[in-house]
């Protein structure tokens, strides 16, 4: 039997109204966008500030209790930060029993969509937003799981190719937040420009203005050895990942040209 696709509950604050056809509440879609974002932005309220705070952070969706769970399963978001940072301190005395309320956003830009008029210009993009409550991870095994998960999200297999486990001072200076997700949504735009019929019937305008898409994808440059690097060649796991990642990124950006 085909597996049923799980979705987050639809709430008024998590459901988009404009271009609703681009929206999705599917767990797999949302989790994939978050897990492939080099940075995610975490918003929270600080009682000592008149403005909401937003931090760029590194995080990853996963499940300590079910390590083999895939992106379509119910997952939690792990974030790491310095032990005395503002968000960590607020989590120690959260305003709600569930934890510190957070809003998390992640996005990718896959292309510049150039149309006949400025108002019809757009981007090919993938964006996701999550709403949840953060609590501190106090279990050492879960903390190590999260640290390995986040490290390997930057470069696969990097954890095992470094000095691990972290020493006592490193463990003490690093805190990990576990965010239990309440709901979330995604929005995706792909394809070519879409212009007004009147403009497309203007032959002079059609001949004068170039329209189309400029694909965008991240390129990993060749590794540059640090000043105290003692390893002769770039490790095979790192170079293989870099080459494959570059190829996949370009292919994906071009696939986003399709409607």
Automatic annotation (TrEMBL):
Gene3D superfamilies: Electron Transport, Fmn-binding Protein, Chain A (2.30.110.10). InterPro entries: Pyridox_Oxase-rel, Split_barrel_FMN-bd. Residues 1-10 have a biased composition (Basic and acidic residues). It holds the Pfam family Pyridox_ox_2. Coiled coil: none annotated. Residues 1-21 are annotated as: Disordered. This is Flavin-nucleotide-binding protein. It comes from Immersiella caudata.
